[in-house]
Amino acid sequence: SSSSPAAGPPPSNANEGCVGPQSGDAGKASACAGCPNQSACSSGKFSSPEAVAAQEAEADQIRAALSNVSHALLVLSGKGGVGKSTVACQMAWTLASRGYSVGVLDVDICGPSAARMLGATGQTVHASGTGWTPVYVSPNLAVMSVSFLLPDADAAVVWRGPRKNGMIKQFLTETVWDDDGLDYLIIDTPPGTSDEHISTVQYLQAVGGVSGAVVVTTPEEVSQADVRKELNFCVKTKVKVVGVVENMATFRTKVSSLGFRKPAAAGDGNGSDGDGTVDCTDEVIKTLKDKCPEVLDLLATADVFPSSGEGPRGMAEQFGVPYLGGLPLDPNLLKSCEDGKCFVETYSDSSAAGPLNVLVDKLVKALPVEEEMDAEAINQQLMEE
Questions:
Q1: How far apart are CA 282 and CA 151, in angstroms?
Q2: How far apart are the first and last CA of the chain?
Q3: Would you give the DSSP letter of residue 273?
Q4: Of 137, 138, 198, 351, which has the fewest Cβ atoms less than 10 A away?
Q5: If residue 231 lies in a helix (H) or strand (E), which one and from where to where?
Q6: How far apart are the C-alpha atoms of 128 and 113, rounded to whole Å?
Q7: Which neighbouring-strand residues pair with 145?
Q8: CA–CA dist 317, 310 (Å, integer)
Q9: Over its length of 385 residues, how does the chain's per-residue pLDDT go in tens digits?
């Protein structure tokens, strides 16, 4: 980090044209008018020798902790419930299944779900003199989450911003990932552009540690309206968008996996579930097997969330960022997350397995990992030259 008085990124809630909290014009420039940080900047809170020293020490800590991480990838969405954690965890599982060394950092302090989706529920982290050891769910996939620090799974986290920020800083500085380093550190964030986002981005940017972000949305305008705000957040904070993922793009499953119901007969009252219908799945599947068995292997599809306008692909084009593809609403994908399993290995022939593998292919291409050659390979290369 620089010792210049202008060093340090501007706060994420700063005005356009921010001169930087450590600039000599901080709090005085025309761009500072109306900024929520104006009084703090003009007072020298961020530019005093003590403040600069503290920020540089903090940056050194984070830089040391992430020195062996090739790529730190944020998974973002302005909207809740779009499957952001599903995408983050299954990207991690898929990368790990290909042999990459992967860490997942869950900074959704109030609603952590990575532990469940990675099969680490009920585990605890171990503290030592060097820091926290994350929970390993496979030899090359580790996860760190506030859920490991809570007294029980249903405990509520009722923290204000400063305490959340302190916890995120601890995660970044005190988590001891694999000694051999990580190829990918996937950071699962909460919805919106809240304290967790601002703190994570600022901590990482202070050491040049953000490789990019994957932004998750669903097809309908209610979701895209909030996701556009997230994309603007990335523009403002200068975070590279690796691409947009359209989750739950369509419902897709084999006909043999469908359930069927029919209206209840007059003597059946309100039906078996009290909704005026009765289950006839066995009857329908038997008829199809007898009369038209080839139908059972067809995929049944439905647009559960109708796309608005040009959809997420058009939104990506509007912002000039890549469209990584769509993931169908696949019941087996949900089951993999509930069970904490790797989807592409457990359900390799399921409808979302192909699209997820394509998504990860594009991610690896955008953020490649340079393979380190061992001494024997280096000597062989030198001899050939």
A1: 45
A2: 38
A3: T
A4: 138
A5: helix 221-237
A6: 25
A7: 106
A8: 10
A9: 333 333 455 665 677 677 777 777 777 888 888 888 888 888 877 777 777 787 788 788 888 888 899 999 999 988 888 999 999 999 999 999 999 999 999 988 888 899 999 999 988 888 877 889 999 999 999 999 988 888 777 777 777 777 888 888 888 889 999 888 999 999 998 887 777 777 888 888 877 778 999 999 999 999 999 999 999 989 988 899 999 999 998 898 889 989 999 988 866 666 666 788 899 999 999 999 999 999 999 989 998 888 888 999 999 999 999 999 999 999 999 999 999 999 999 999 999 999 999 999 999 999 999 875 455 555 665 666 5
Cα separations (Å) of 253 from 16, 22, 190, 245, 310? 47, 56, 29, 20, 25
pLDDT at 281: 95
Please, is 46 exposed, middle or buried when counting C-beta atoms within 10 Å of its C-beta (0-12, 13-18, 19+)?
buried
Give the dihedral sign, CA 231/166/141/114: negative
Tokens of 263: 């209206």
Determine whether 239 is exposed, middle or buried from the number of CB atoms within 10 Å of its CB (0-12, 13-18, 19+): buried
- Residue 378's Cβ-count burial label (10 Å; 0-12, 13-18, 19+) is exposed
Q: Would you mind telling me the total number of residues written for the chain in this entry?
A: 385
Distance of alpha carbon 206 from alpha carbon 147, whole angstroms: 27
Mapped onto helix, strand or coil, the DSSP state of residue 202 is: helix
DSSP designation for 175: B
CA distances from 1 to 62, 68, 79, 185 (A): 11, 18, 34, 22
Judged by phi (left if over 0) then psi (alpha if -120 to 50, else beta), residue 72 lies in beta
Query: 90 Cβ partners below 8 Å, 6+ apart?
Result: 117, 333, 336, 337, 342, 343, 344, 356
Cα dist. 190→74, 122, 229, 328, 351 in Å? 11, 21, 14, 22, 27
Q: Which two tokens stand for residue 23?
A: 């600039």
